[in-house]
Design a protein that fits this description.
By secondary structure, the protein is of the alpha/beta class. The chain has two domains: 120 residues, Rossmann fold (3-Layer(aba) Sandwich); 208 residues, Dihydrodipicolinate Reductase, domain 2, CATH 3.30.360.10. The protein is built from nine helices and 15 strands. Strands 14-13-12-11-7-10-9-8-15 form a nine-stranded mixed sheet. Helix 5 links the parallel strand 5 and strand 6. The protein is globular. The relative contact order is 0.15.
Length: 330
């Protein structure tokens, strides 16, 4: 077990504090936020120390790691400051907002032999692990196409002044809140993405960047992909991977955090389909646990540094495509 501090105490930062407490690998000693005075009750409830500033956490020799759940524009500097202080870092997604920024972050961590953790917990869902195994074993044949939809309305009531919907914090809430999980998994499943074409729409929410995003993707292998995410519709989750020898589809009955079941269907070249059901799994905890084990030299973490960089590169290309209305290179 090692000690950590959580920085950022919105709904997700608080979830990370509570999730860490469910395991025996990470002990959260301290928390802080942009306005720490607003979070004393939470600190008291969870039995952690409320630090007055991020600097106070970095100077605390009893803290081994920092878990960042802060606005996206703050990630790079906070990450680099933590690395300079010799602390391990787990950073919520998106890891950063530009590829150059992500490269600086990775280089700094690797120079000190630190293990970078990232908040892409959807890789840890049992259904997605099955899909990755199906594909890595070549059961699909030649990769043809990936398509998916990850949507929910958990953030539909965010006010216009929320940082999460600010254009400065990312090109689209449906992308930075949802779709970026799928671009991460697409890199895991089919490899590097070469170019993207993005469209957004403002259908209900008045956020400047809209509440709908649709992405077309071309992989370096020649395969294609499609992702759509909406922030104002009830939960919907589906991902399908197609190849010349078969396909696999993952479909959720509810949001993973709500404990819904997931249905996994595979189809072989002859058209024979098989479906089975998987129960809920705490993927957030599984992610933190695997990172903690890697930090302590007890196993590997399933993200490569290049995948972290590449996913931010995809995000940056999407932002360019939204502005240009054209295909953009990653």
């Amino acid at each position: 077990m090692f000690t950590a501090a959580v920085v950022g105490l919105g709904w997700w930062g608080r979830n990370l504090v509570n999730t860490s407490a469910q395991g025996d690998k990470i002990k959260v000693l301290s928390v802080t936020a942009g306005h720490p005075e607003n979070h004393q009750d939470f600190a008291d409830e969870t039995g952690v120390t409320l630090a007055k500033s991020y600097d106070e956490i970095l100077e605390n020799k009893d803290i081994d790691a920092v878990i960042l759940a802060t606005p996206h524009t703050q990630h790079e500097q906070q990450f680099l400051d933590a690395v300079a202080a010799g602390k391990q870092v787990f950073c919520e997604k998106p890891f950063s907002l530009t590829k150059e920024s992500a490269m600086r972050m990775v280089a700094a961590a690797e120079a000190k032999n630190l293990v970078i953790g990232v908040g892409h917990e959807r890789r840890f869902e049992s259904s997605m692990e099955e899909a990755q195994a199906f594909l890595s074993q070549g059961k699909h044949g030649t990769a043809l196409h990936l398509e998916g939809n990850y949507s929910h309305n958990l953030l539909a009531e965010l006010p216009l002044d929320s940082w999460r919907v600010s254009p400065a914090e990312g090109p689209s809430l449906p992308l930075t809140g949802m779709g970026i999980h799928f671009t991460d998994m697409y890199l895991w499943f089919f490899g590097p993405i070469e170019s993207v074409n993005a469209q957004t729409a403002k259908r209900q929410a008045e956020w400047e960047a809209g509440d709908v995003i649709t992405l077309q993707l071309k992989f370096a292998s020649g395969a294609t992909g499609f992702i759509s995410s909406m922030a104002t519709t009830p939960y919907y989750g589906r991902l399908s991977a197609f190849g010349t020898e078969g396909w696999i589809e993952v479909r959720d009955s509810g949001h993973p955090q709500a404990g819904g079941e997931t249905y996994v269907t595979t189809c072989d070249k002859a058209g024979a389909q098989e479906t089975h059901t998987l129960g809920p799994k705490n993927a957030v905890k599984a992610n933190l646990d695997e990172w903690a084990d890697a930090v302590e030299g007890k196993g590997d973490y399933r993200f490569t540094s290049q995948q972290l960089i590449d996913n931010v590169g995809v995000l940056e290309a999407i932002a360019k495509s939204i502005q240009s209305g054209q295909w953009e290179k990653v």
